[in-house]
Amino acid sequence: MSNITNPESARLKRDWRIKFALLIMGVLLAAASCINAPAYAYKDGCIVLQHLGTVVLLLPLALELKRQRMGIGACVGLFLFTCVHIVGARYLYSNVPYDRWAKTFLNLDIDIKGQWEIKAVGTGVIHGNKFDRMVHFSFGLLLFPFAYQVTKRLMKGINPLYALVFAWLFLQTSSMVYELFEWFLSLVLSPENAENYNGQQGDMWDAQKDMALALGGSTISALWIFISGRMWRRPVQTESAGEQKGGTAG
């Protein structure tokens, strides 16, 4: 019995340490992002509103320290997306100087403002900072593994292919709900604050483009899981082991 339980217990302890480290790094990065942030980020508490999203993203990692149900890969994806969001929150998304960073640290000129997309129909405007676009793509790409594992946990015994589809649909729905939330903010906040949070930059098709990128990212991630065969592997049973582990994790 000990030959079976000891390796499992060691794996759970290792996973717990990794998840704890991810949570601590996320909290520290969020705190650091508020230090000497640009003055516009503090105006009317915009950076606080942005970091409400950070709390929502870090909460599942905190819960994982007790439940130990998600795989390390899914938690790393959640952590990486949280990091991307924290960077965007510091600069209110529309002002992330990624082009300057690339030129300073990599000696690359990627001044792509206005070069990723044609003029929006009816506006005659070529839009600027594309960091927000990358975040929505990352939303689908990095969060899909976590959504997939949650789906399998909540719908025990479900066919893996159905779980894959449900997780994919869940992310598309979440993307749409978030865009509706941004629309609601545009109704209740001042035009300036709504623009600072939503980062539309005058693009009338901003919501549609964001949802399309989230769809693309989640589709790539779903296809990777399907093609790699990960969806057909028998999941490791950790619930009973987690109960045996008890206070050793916390």
Strand residue content: under 5%
Order of helices and strands: HHHHHHHHHH
Low-confidence stretches: 114-127, 236-250
CA(first)-CA(last) distance? 24 Å
Task: Please describe what this structure looks like.
- The protein is mainly α and 250 residues long.
- 70% of the residues lie in helices and 0% in strands.
- It contains ten helices and no strands.
- Helix 1 (2-33) packs parallel to helix 4 (72-90), helix 6 packs across helix 9 (206-228) and helix 7 packs antiparallel against helix 9 (206-228).
- The protein is globular.
What is the structure about, briefly put?
With 250 residues, the protein is mainly alpha-helical. It has one domain (2-97, 119-248).
Key traits:
single chain; 250 residues; mainly alpha; 10 helices; 0% strand; globular
Which helices and strands occur, and which strands form pairs?
Layout: H1 2-33, H2 39-42, H3 46-67, H4 72-90, H5 98-105, H6 131-154, H7 160-188, H8 191-198, H9 206-228, H10 239-245
